[in-house]
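### Sample
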Amino acid sequence: MHSPPWRLIIEESPRSGAANMAVDESIAEAAAGGDVPPTLRFYRWQSPTVSLGRFQKIA
């Protein structure tokens, strides 16, 4: 058995921070369920945004 190939997504249009996080969450859930392969996504922000991971310390 081999692992599925990686998927690359390069977003052309900037999105809000909330929209980017919603897309990331959807991709993560789909990948966890085996519906899509592991995904590397590059995206742009509409305005400067801070994004912290769930277990990431602020300082």
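Residues 7-42 form one domain. This sample (Lipoate--protein ligase family protein) is used throughout the tutorial notebook.
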